[in-house]
Design goal:
The complex is a heterodimer of chains A (about 750) and B (about 140). Chain A is of the alpha/beta class. Helix content of chain A is about 45%, strand content about 20%. Classes of the chains: A alpha/beta (about 750), B alpha/beta (about 140).
Amino acid sequence: MLRSLWSTVWAVTALLAAPAHANEVVLFCAVDARLSECLAIVDAIRTELASASDGAAAKVELEFVDPASSPQAPAGVALAAYLRAKYRQRPVDVAVAISSGAIDFLLEQPDLFAGRPAAVLVGHEHSVEVARVPPGAALIEIPLRPAATVELAASLQPGLEHVFVLTSALDGRRERAIVDDLGQLAERFDVQYLVGFGLDDLLDRVSRLPRNSMLLYDSTERGGLLDAEAAAERLAEAANAPLYTLHEHDIGRGAIGGYVTPVGAIGAEAARLVLRQLHGAGDTTTVTTVRGSLVVDAAAMRQQGFAETRLPASAEQRFGQSSVWRLYQGWIVTLLVLAALQFVLVGAFLIQSIQRRKDRVALNEAAYRFQLARIAGQVGFWQWDLASNEWTAEPELRRLLGFDGASAPSDWCAYIHCEDRERVSKAAENYVQGFAEGFDIQHRVKDHYNRERWFLSRGQLLRGLKNQPTRLVGMAIDITERKRQEDDRARAQLELHEQRVELAHLGRAAAAGALSGALAHELKQPLSAILMNAQAGQDYITKPNADYNEVKAILADIEGQCRRAGEIIRNLRNLLRPGEEHFAPVHIFSVVNDVLTLLHSDLVARNVRVAVAPMTGVPAIIGERVQLQQVMLNVINNAIDAMSNTDPRERCIEISATTDAGRVHISVADTGCGLGTANADEIFKPFVSTKRHGLGLGLTLSRSIVDRHGGRIWASSNTDRGTTVHMEFPVETAEIAAA
Amino acid sequence: MAESNSSSSPRRPLVAVVDDEDCVRRALVRLMRFASCDVVAYSSAHDLLQALDDLDVDCLVLDLQMPDMTGLEVQSYLSMTRSGAPIPVVIITAHDDPGIRERCLAAGATAYLRKPIEAPALLAAIRRLTASRYDAEALPRNH
């Protein structure tokens, strides 16, 4: 048989030397449990052959054989006949048998093909007797390393004790090789062979394995129609111990790993050998072994909870070595964190940028409104730098005053009225040093036209990093108009008050006038009687028989009339007495102060300086406070009016008080137009006034008040200029306003 | 009330004095008596008018400002109601109004005197008024 085969091979070779025809390569696969694996190898071979670069185009045919049926069986005979018939006209160059079943078939049927094609045999170690291999054939041996697989398991499962091997009946060459290989581990592990079980039984058995077990899977004997990989999956699922395998194809389908030979490598080697055979085989039989390696299913491993660290370094990881993640976990996490940080930063930056833009818009709006407010409200800003002690007025403020904002000097103090400068700087000092609550002061300012304007300055203290005061930032508001209005109002009120007072007095005076008629009338009666009685009496006593009784009667009547007259006068006097008066000790100094306070803004507005001499030691007088205020008000007002035509720099009122012989003497001197041609006493007469709207009763009424206080009031011309009004009041409690 | 005084042979003039002020009335009565006149005094015009029916008064001394009737009213009443020669009237008043004097005189007052009254002036006026009726010597001359 073999010889026929060999002659076929030689014939084919000869044919090959002939002018080229497409090489025919037939692949044989056995339909057994490992069919998938075979087919994978077939694919690998096809791929390799297709990409072969030596130009030898090869046609690849795939045939299947049933290893269960022997060649002598009718099925086998039929198959052989079929094949022979098929390939009668088609010379085959190379025949490739993959797996022991196909190899057996091929070796037993050497005359299948017309020529004698070269053979490439692919099978597991020890599955083919080398002696049977015809000369010139190439044999690829796939290593079986069950021991190595067990070692792998041992390293992953440190306490491994039991090894359960799943394989076909132990009588095959391969199976015996496995047993031999595992024999060396007999001392270390308890190796048991689960053979002869049906799949269901197996499934049951593997679910009850003892602890520290492993399953070493080769194949099942009676898997039925189920192929080995599917069986592996079911076994892995059912088993309570990890499943290891000797076949690469099982890994990832239930088996955790094992010492396997990659299908790709097998295919590549087979293709290489096929090509070699196509180019001339030779007589020698070549045996090549494809290298295997440890391969594990990383996902399955993790699932079992095996630490990666236990894995031998040479082991190849597949399926779930979410590779990059596993290897570079740390780096990836770091990168992600950095990326996240970056996103956060960018996000923050964006947000900030948006916010800033919003702020800028808001700021612009605010600035715009602010500008409007300034223009409308006549507001300007200045600041006092505490370090350099410079008061700077901003250009807007200077412009407000009518100066050229750019060229005018920036020293704010220069603009403040000289008389107010000290007051303002003192107030600022107080605020800065914490003695005052705030900085809020009214003062005068000279504008471009040298006019005086009233300004309200308010300030806010700015502090530095160490909370020390650095700057006083101030706001200056033009309140000239407001002040003018206030002054006008105040003055109007004052005038109104004065007029009311005068009118009240006038009313009383008028009443007095009216009553004086009544008084005169009333008095005339007793006076008449007195006169007539007296004259009658005078006449009577000249008579010769004058009766003294008669004279006595006359004189008695006269006395009576006089008393009556006195009564009349007293009653009418009482009628004329003004309202409620409360006489009490009064200090002239306080009266003067009250009045000056009332007149303050007026005095300032009219540039009148008032000098009040100290009145310490001047005793109090008994008086009616309100009335005394009226007098003082009237006198000072007159003084102010008198100076309306005087140079503003020379307007001055001097008030002083002295004590002399139980009387307090007060003088109010002005630098005004003086009494002129008028008599010093004339001005106290009623309805005498130089004022356009004056009633001319002020001094008249003042005099009446002073008189009621038991005092005197008079005026005198000063030696240089102006008038002095003098008042004198008794210190002791004399009879004041007695009937 | 009326006060009267009987006189000696030549009939003394009868003066009627009307003033609501007691002191003035009393003084006037005294003055008349010392001037040798008969005097009757009334405190109100009504009293006078009532008495005038019975009395033959030679002269009236009337206060102008009286509560019930002013002297002027009395005067006009008398001139309207009495026939014959009107009784001379001396108006005395405490008022000082300028127009009153003219009015009184225009109304028929024979004399107008302001208080306080000077006795000589009053007596002179009465003498003058009653001179037509009586002997002038009956009245005292100088006061």
